[in-house]
Amino acid sequence: MRISTNEFFLGTLNDMLAQQSAVSNLNQQIASGQSVVNATDNPSAAATILDTANQIDEISTNANNAQAVSSNMNETLSVLNQVDNLLNQVQSTALQGASATAGSADRLALANSVQGSLQELVQLANTQLSNGQYIFGGSQATNAPFQMTPTGQVVFKGDAGVDQIEIGPSLLVPVAVSGQSVFMQVPDGNGSFAVAASGTNTGTGVAALGGVLNATLVNSEHLANTQFEVSFTAGAGGALNYSIASGKGAPGSASFIASSGTVASGSYNSSSAALSFGGMDITFSGTPAVGDHFMVRTSQTTSAFQALQNVIAALQAPVDGASGTRARADQLIQDALATLNQVHTSVLSAEASLGTSLSEINAVQNQDNAVTTTDQANLASIQSASLPNVMAQFSEGVTALQAAQAAFGKISGLSLFKYI
Amino acid sequence: MGGINQVLDSALSGLLAAQEGMATEANNTSNVNTPGYALEGLNQIETIGTTGPIGGTGTGTSVVSIQRSFDQYVYQEMVQADSVNQAAQVVSSGTSSLSSVFPLASGGAGGLGNIIGSLFAAANTVAQDPANLSNRDAFLSSAQRMVSLFQSVGSQLTTNINTVNGQITQSVAQINNLATQIAQINKDILSNAGPSDSATNSLIDQADQLVQQLGEQVGITISAGASGTMDVYLAGGMALVNGATSYNLSATSGSYNDGTLAVKYSPNGEDLTNRISGGQLGGYLSMRAQYASANDSVGGLAVALASAINGQQTLGLDLNGQLGKALFSVPAPVVYAGIANTGTATVTAAITNPNAFTPGDYILTRIAGGYQALNVQTGQTTPLGAGPTLSLDGMSVNVTGAANVGDTSEIEPTLNAASQIAVTTTDPSAIAAAAPYVATAGVMASGGISNTNVGNVTMTAGAPTLSGSLPAGTVIVPSADFGQQLSVKFTSATTFNVLNSSNVVIASGTYSGVNGAEVAVAYPSPPAPAGEVATLTLSAGTPVTGDSFVLTPGGTGSNGNMVAMASLQTTDLLSGQTLSDAYTKMVTDIGDRGAEATAAGQAAQSVFTRAQSTEQSISGVNLDEEAANLVQLQQAYQANAQVIGTIQSLISSLLTAMHG
Predict the structure, then answer these.
(1) Which sequence spans correspond to the domains of chain A?
(2) Whether A151 contacts chain B with CB within 8 A
(3) Cβ neighbours of A270 (radius 10 Å)
């Protein structure tokens, strides 16, 4: 084909410009280390890059949440551990008081020490996180949730609002435990039922809480607020008889109505002093006197603070004096210890639920790390320029450009006019 | 038979032809770099010879005309290819600059998608510690950074659109100018009509060059007119140049005063905007549509994000215990009334549900008995009913006043959303992080909550929802009581009352031990969206008369609403997609169009290069060829001169012989 002189120069020039643009593009890839800088570079990679980067961001947000939650949870756990220790201490103090050798004065001293523990427990329940939020206050973050009234009652000023946070797609974990459920919702007695001795008892009988024989029955008694009164009466031939009446109202008082009448009765035998009624059983130690009463009811909600108050009250109860005084005090201590145990259970179950959440968070974090690592590798493989390849292409491009320039130099010197 | 004079005449004609030839070669050589110049050559013929008894002899040569070396078909191919190439280059460089607005480097760091992700990360930080003011501040500054990027992207795209409008004006001016010049040259050629000579050739060369330039501005078709003139038509058949007459285009407002220039055919005012293709003008028009579409899409993201977060704000409580207010302000859809409207209707629009909305413009037309809307992007027409309030793809359109049939309005729903989105507060306590209600078992006593419940029913606060989606039998507390402390009290194992803070019964409901019961507190609306309720659930179980729950507004430590706000990141908000999916789709679409444009640009470039070299192989000047021709002509000249010299010496020897 005939080629015009203009075309001759222009064509070579266009070729060189194209080479230059390719070399410049490769140079940019080398400088930035990235092969895809704009969506135009590679539209199909663009979607993967943005989606992957977005997933990495979302996981990092979740991981950040998980981190914050586990740090809160660990702080909470450490407070609950202190509560644990405190309860153990109170328990051993109460046991000291229950010892047969402890006199009234000793017990008053022990009561004072528990009084100190009570103050400490209120403080622990009002622990603030490093950010100033009260751990056990629910959503009422800025006021101390547990306040002691002048009469020594502890009032819960918080609420049951426990925050949750997302640590994975649609995976919400609670960031705290409800202070109400840990400290204010403790069943008294053995968790199912409780016993109390009448203040006029004169015998040495002390009732120990046994187990639940019929949970359904106990539950319906609970819902119906059924009360039981165990009364000891004189039987034939100096024997001791017992009868158990069930009804409504406070047993032992005028308001008690034995609406369901006597549910069990018999002869009391100190060698087999276990009495079963209403799906529960209790076992007496010592010997009740004729006319002694014991009141049994299903557990009611009390607070950890009240449990300590009960211990204090039990220790303050006199042990010397008229017959039956020590047995009544022993009964009080026994009841208080049983309730203290329920407080312990409540704290332990809060610790367990935190532990479960923490291990769940841990598992999610491990999973997140694995996914992030894979994602980052994917992102790098899509987006990063493969330097050996790019360098090779770059050298090729430079060589070709140099060749084109040299050729242009030669070609431009060709002219017939030089020879005529 | 010829005499000696005839020999002399023959030689002289050769000498003159060689001279003229050399002049042509000299002209070719001197125009080697002149754009539009077509190689010229002599149209040389042998003159008619004489007749004689022993046969005639030749009488020499003569130059009939000077011919341009030119192929109309090849030339037209080149002009077309040039036109396509110009459009492709404009689009290719435009799309690549458009795609750089949405960077991908380092996983899209610093881009809109990334910065929206940062906002949600900041929302999660607030959720981690809702009472913490510095977290709240960080969330607001993150919102501010995001808004700034939206504004900057929006204004960049708006600037691009304005620049393109300016380029369209210039291009139209140039088209008019070129058309006028071509018509003038046509006129000159016509008045100069005669044999093809160098003067005419140079006029035609100029016209060719101008037509090619015109083709670079806009797609044209050419047809050869009389005497080498050229008629030029737009791709649609409208004449730009017809003989000595030119026709103008104009760049003026279209059917709406929306600042978008329409290209019109001046003689009849016809709007050619959607019919023009090719040339830089075609490229500009295509780029303007792409910039506008990108601006709409980015605006769509802004609207969806703002509307979701603003909506969530009104469902939670701020640090002062008040329902939250909008955190973002976004401009409402812009509506332009048709210039030709005859009615008095005013149209306003609002985006009510971004999730059902697809960014793009609509044309609302009054038809007999109602309205219809044309989706400009898809070309789909939807009948809308009689109004005055119309529901259109996630928008609510309101018409006041009377529209006449044929009246139109252009709705640009997200025109200014990106460039004008703003954060409305700097007060960190305005973030509504807290859930509206928290349920706690028990009753209020001595300023605290004392739990004496006997039964095992629990009560938990749920997510706000629309009252329409509540299960049957839900007890709804009227919005007048919203915000106060409420309580729920069982009056039997199957019934309960809801009481206000003064212990007045405001609602009551029935409870099922198997299914529990639902309680909902209606939000005051506004600020909350109509029909929103806060939900609370009584679990299945066995209640005992007197069992109670206290419902208190979420305290400063509550993050219920913030968690919901943070989870908007993974909620479908715009056109049935999450924001990040919508962003990815937008960027990928732009990338796809850009990659296509780059490929098309390269293809058009090489087609043009080939067409140009074909044209140049016919009409271009080759200096080596000129040199060779020159040598040839020089030799012809010398030979003819030699013939004259020989004749002279013949005559001189004849005279010498006669004079002795």
Answers:
(1) 192-298
(2) no
(3) 12
